Amino acid sequence: MNSITKNLLIGVAAIAGGIGESVACTGISLTAADGSYIQARTIEWAKGELTSEYVIIPRGEQLQSYTPTGLNGMKYTARYGVVGLAVEVKEFIAEGINEAGLSAGLFFFPRYGSYKPYNSSLNTTTLADLQVVQWILSQFSTIDELKQNINNVSIVGLENGAVVHWRIGEPSGRQVVMEIVNGKVSFFENTVGVLTNAPGFEWHLANLENYVNLRPGSATNYTLGKQELQPIGGSSAMLGLPGDFTPPSRFVRAAFFRNTAPQRTNGHNTVLQAFHILNNFDVPIAIENPDEKSLPSATQWTSAIDLTARRVYYKTAYNNSIRLIDLSTIDFSKVKYQSHPLDSVREQPIKQLVIK
After folding, report:
1. Quick count: other Cβ atoms within 10 Å of Cβ 282?
2. Which residue segment(s) compose the domain that 44 sits in?
């Protein structure tokens, strides 16, 4: 194993060592009145700075997966051009889209997910879990294509205990969640349009039934004995909505915010609405890790992808200005494989108004 690969795996181990208490990703999806389909999400890491960059993969690029022993896993060629947002290294795409409109993202899934044990004799078909998004987006145009080919690869973790599950969406608005438990791959149709972390997706759906009483707006007056009760303020029908940052609570909160949001006219307005909703999941510094003092927020970046228009939007903890990568402006037959920091300058621009 060369020194670069060794240092990379040490870095992955450092991240994986704290994922149970430090990662709090929240994903939502929205559909505009004109049919534009948007998938948006946050990504958190409370143990320090998470190096993040945007990645461009051209058609025809030769790619290879890491294994727990180095850069010696499955080799494959990109069939589709890809734009992704990666963490730590350009191969670890956490969220992205390809030129066919298929989008995918990973969400940490500690304790509840589990892969088959790593077997070095299967290296030619071995795929690191943190590179599954790269593989999906570079190889497939539909969810059904992925489902037909998923058993042709052996997905492994680069570090014990580091497990993820995935959200995959099509421009049609179809979205699935892919989970691996005891080495078995399962797909779930995601009709609620939300994903967080552990426990499993089906558990989160069942847990929603604990909140069947919640409604948008205000509760009606109620007479308790001879005492008439009335709402103190607005949104009282949502009283009881969990407000903490655990995955179950974020799932419930995201589901109600997403499903009570008014439908916008087009993709542009829906992207802005997605960012607005996800502002509610911006984790304040030191909430997850009291020892962390330097980060502006534990929510390191937020993205929204328009699967219909093939556009990637993002903002970061250091700069809340929304940036855009439009896939229609990229020639994936000629562009070079490249990656660049999400923030060229870590500074929030502030425009001062001139008063005359």
Report:
1. 15
2. 3-197+263-341
Give 220 or 308, the one with higher predicted confidence: 308
pLDDT in tens, 12-39: 544 444 444 456 799 999 999 999 999 9
Residue in the structure block whose two tokens are 């829906």:
270
| Dist CA 279 CA 42 (whole Å) | 9
Peptide bond into 242 cis (omega under 30): no
Measure the CA angle with vertex 38, ends 25 and 47; round to 5°.
15
Give the tokens for residue 187.
Answer: 């797909």
Two structure tokens written together for 86 = 């990666």
Beta-sheet strands, E only, within 118-211: 126-128, 154-156, 164-169, 175-181, 184-189, 194-195
In a domain, 257, yes or no: no
51 contacts: CB under 8 Å, gap ≥ 6: 87, 88, 341
| 94-143 confidence digits (pLDDT tens) | 999 999 999 999 999 999 999 999 999 999 999 999 999 999 999 999 99
**Would the pTM count as exceeding 0.90?**
yes
What's the angle, vertex CA 22, arms to CA 19 and CA 26, rounded to 5? 95
Q: What are phi and psi of 36, to 5 degrees?
A: -60, 135
* Residue showing tokens 């995935």: 166
Q: Are 252 and 241 in contact (CB under 8 A)?
A: yes
What is the count of structural domains for the chain?
1
Other CB atoms within 10 A of residue 285 CB: 17
Q: What radius of gyration do the chain's Cα atoms show?
A: 21
Domain CATH number, residue 326:
3.60.60.10
Q: Which two tokens stand for residue 347?
A: 């500074």
Residue 159, in any domain of the structure: yes
Confidence at residue 97, expressed as pLDDT on a 0 to 100 scale: 98
